[in-house]
Fold:
Amino acid sequence: MHVWMQFIRQKRELSTQRPTSEQCKEFFKSYETAVIFHLTKQVEKREDRIPWSKEQNTELVKVERDVFLAGNYKAFLLFMDECRLCEKCAGNRVDCRFPVQARPSPESLAVDVFTTVRKQGYLIEVLTDVGETMNRYAFLMLE
Structure:
C-alpha cells in the first residue's frame, strides 16, 4: 500500500500530518508511469478559476476510477490545483466532506511541476496577469 493511501486510511492522525520528503520519494518509487493531463483556461477574474478547478478535479477523479476499474489497481490521481471539491475546505482529512474523492496536488508531494512538465515539452510559465491563459497539470500515477 503506498504512502498516501496509508494516510487516507489513518485519517484520524492526518489533521496536521503531511508526508515527509522521504515518504514522497517512496510513493513515487512505487510507480513506473505518470499520465500528464494538460488543462488550460483563461479567466477574467481570479475567483473564476475556483469553479473551473472544482469541475476539472471532479472529472479527473472519474477518469482515475475508470482506469482503476480497467484493472489498474494502483491508479492514483494528483490534482492540478488545490482540491476545491468544497466551497470551504475543512483543512484536515478528519472533517473532510469528500475523503474518498479528495486528492493531493503534486506540489503537496514535493513535485516540482514546472521542471517536470518542461522536461516533457509542455508549456508552463509564471503568470503576471489574471487574464493570461493558465497551463495546469494533473498527474495520474500508474504502476
